[in-house]
Amino acid sequence: MIRRRSRAVVAALAAAVATLFSPSSAQAYTASQHMVISGHGWGHGHGMSQYGARGAAIKGLDYKQILGFYYPHTTWSTKTGLVRVLLAGITTNKVVARPRSSLTASWRGHTSVWNLGKVQPTADQWQIVPASGGRSVLMYHVAAGWKTYTAVVGELDFYALGNPISIGVPGGWRSYRGTVGAVLPSPSAATRWIVNTLQLDQYILGVIPSEMPSSWQPEALKAQAVAARTYAAFEMATPASPEYDLFDDTRSQVYGGFTAEQASTNTAASATTGQILMYGGKPAFTEFSSSNGGYELAASTNPQPYLPSQPDPYEQYSGNPYATWSASISVTTLLNECPSAGSSITSVTAEHYPPSNNPWLSRVIVKGPSGSCTFYGYQFRVMNGLRSANMGFHIS
């Protein structure tokens, strides 16, 4: 199960501040004491809870009912088209592919195409390597080593007439549908971005099992399919870069390519082909997280009617290992995190997001005789390795 950052909480993390506080005569906590935490959920809590979707499916809700609960006020539509995914884990600045039938290299923006199996049938690997002046070098590997086949000014792509391509990644190989190319960040750049371009519904096949266990209930998998497709459609409309739409990791949503695909999640994608959620005539920003602990949290920046704060009746069941958890933070750790407090901690208090019954912490305030520190809830969670900011605490 993936724990991701949302756009809202990343902004909140950057905005944390420390403020001065007048010396206090309150009794200081001792170094042997701890902030004892009772928490719920895992993740940022915005949008659909994945464990909640599973709980709703167990109770008999279908995927449209599940999505209607987590994203109210949205409407249904369809979306197709090409999505461009940055394969961020490939940091070698080149693309290495294994040979296969119909493996082809093409010069982007030109008509030049090379059927690699025909031009060099003894090659056991092919690669696209960047060179100076915005050039790309196509090379092949044989028993004698790497040899240059051709070089062009611009970008090259591998594809295999609709068949998956096996691409070198750290620690091994991973297969991808569509094309995989070495993209220039700028015309004269020496570096490359490795980008997988494929149809939106093909992309979803590699997302669903990377984000939700493929053994879960079919209606939960369908809900994940639509949420993930909508998320991608939103990013296609507001791309992360001129050269790619989204990342293949938790900066967007996790994508494992053809290698990650499973029969059950492919069935869920097929059953929801093209379906997305809309709001205001645009794809909705369908955030999701592992578990909200029983309360969905509205976005703190750019709030939307389809991302409400509301109790979640589908979270609390025996199959959710994150429904309730506990942790503790030593007073010494709090002092290290808030040096402006001085030599001791005199109080730790919290503020919550509205409405009044919302259990999510918006701020944690640590005070000492010399000053205080105010941490946003998400920041405090990340600093201390906590599963979520849906929590209560006391000093003991």
TrEMBL record:
Q: What does the record list as GO biological process? A: sporulation resulting in formation of a cellular spore
What's the short name of a Pfam family annotated to this entry? SpoIID
Signal sequence coordinates: 1-28
Give a yes or no for keyword Nucleotide-binding in this entry. Answer: no
GO cellular component terms? outer membrane-bounded periplasmic space
- Does the record carry Chaperone as a key word? no
**Name of this protein:** Sporulation stage II protein D amidase enhancer LytB N-terminal domain-containing protein
Q: What is the lineage of its organism?
A: Bacteria, Bacillati, Actinomycetota, Actinomycetes, Propionibacteriales
